[in-house]
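During the reporting period the student researcher (J.K.) took over the structure-prediction task from the postdoctoral fellow and processed the backlog of single-chain submissions. One of the processed entries is reproduced below for the supervisory committee.
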Amino acid sequence: MTQPQTTIKKLVCKSGMVYDLALKKHCPSIKYSDSTLPSEITALIEEKNILDLEGSYGDKEGYSPI
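J.K. obtained the following structure tokens:
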């Protein structure tokens, strides 16, 4: 496995369903800082070009990762 080139300072994974984005704070989350983020996750993010994903079903204005 090669060393990842992406610099990620913080990663928050949330899951759940809400009818209003203001309620997302109530969804359970897993938080990683740069020191606790497993290298496997960083490698997969870079390998699969996750940070380049945009759009919802091909609609470029539908979604952008934050």
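The committee noted the following: Strands lie at 10-14, 29-33.
J.K. will present the remaining backlog at the next meeting.
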